[in-house]
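BUG: 3D viewer hangs when loading the predicted structure for this chain

Environment: internal workstation, default settings.
Expected: structure renders.
Actual: progress bar stalls at 90%.

Input used:
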Amino acid sequence: MRRFSSLAAVCRVTASPAALENPIHNQHRLFQSALFSTGSNNYSARSQWFPYDKVTPQSTRKAFAGTMLFSVAATTLAEEVHAKEHVQSKFRPNDVVLYQYEACPFCNKVKAFLDYYDIPYKVVEVNPISKKEIKWSDYKKVPILMVDGDQMVDSSDIIDKLTKKIHPDVQLEDDEEKKWRGWVDNHLVHILSPNIYRSTSEALESFEYITSHGNFSFTERLTAKYAGAMAMYFVSKKLKKKYNITDERAALYEAGETWVDALKGREFLGGAKPNLGDLAVYGVLRPIRYLKSGRDMVEHTRIGDWYTRMENAVGVSSRTPA
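Structure tokens produced before the viewer hung:
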């Protein structure tokens, strides 16, 4: 089953229109799919499909048969994999620009929405020190989303407005969806910083990611990495106290389990496909997924299966070159 799940992930990558438009991102996603196919905890020689030190006529025949099976299955699965949510062309925005910080959970929440609905968007990475990229705006935070010339701010409000724009005849959300979107904004995001910056080593790991993806000069990058990591390490301790968190990892694990319980055995909160609650949780967790805090969360809670389903459902990024 693992092998066919991996194959489905590969098909999603290669079949998406966004992947065809963005080959570099496509290569990254294919690399992720290849890692997934080996199993998350096993990167040894046993994961190789065709070990060269054991080549025999029998193994050659099996390898050929396996290749043919892979080819046939790929053709079939390419037609069956989950397609992104369709937006009628008359409701699709023509020009979307996101002003963001790459590691910002609220910015990633907006990107998860845009990616899932396959809405092409450009990104302007804001320098967090000078913020010169948003000096034109009275709003001095991110995300800022420009949609066909109109400014939208605040991630939840952005998503509400975009939802009405692309699905004007659809009810915005039910009570369950609204409840869990509020849980993301009022609870989940508050336990992320104490976990991301829990120790000096984790703070440095986080700022290595932030500065390598952010809009920094060389000097700013060095300064931000070390000074920023130390500053956020101490800030995280204050946030921990502010939100009455005694054990940050326990709080993170509890949040993961709480979310899985909310699914009530469904693939997604939305049932057979993600809704805005799913996209909100996925979006804010996406920046930490491969940091130590995110890896620990997946290892110690049941959230990993849902997260993988969300990765497959959201698919490749709809981001286009700026």
